[in-house]
What we know:
mainly alpha; cell division; cell cycle; coiled coil; cytoplasm; rod-shaped; Ska2_N
Amino acid sequence: MGHNHQQHHQATDGLVNLFTKANHDLSVVHYKLEREFQQIYPDNANPMKLVSRIKKIQDDVSTLKEQCRELLEAKQDLIDEAQTTLIGNKNLVQRMQASLGIPFTGEDDIAFTNFKQIIEEWRVQVRSRTGDDKHDSDSDDVNKLLFSAIVQSN
């Protein structure tokens, strides 16, 4: 039995030595690769991590593009609804003024003309950026003008 126990230790020792050597060899390879990467890629850039980050950015850009498209569609819907509402309200106010005998001053026409101009500028921007009637553009200036025209018409 003692002999069998001795063989077991020798086999285990051989296995431990094999793993120790493998661990050492892997450490040497790791060190050499790390040094090579530091020389080739400054700032410890890992090409695989960079590729992964680029893929993630591409996915994010695609998602953002879709969200922007949805936002611009909603913006166009809002503009269309505002236009319909303002035109309806303008006509209603003019009819009420006429029925009450209040003369039309023309002040409302200036605000309404500004509003129509803003709507047309929006449509021109959309067409110029997309090449068609899809609504894939945005402009803070148009938003400000639109808001200004709506406030003036109220």
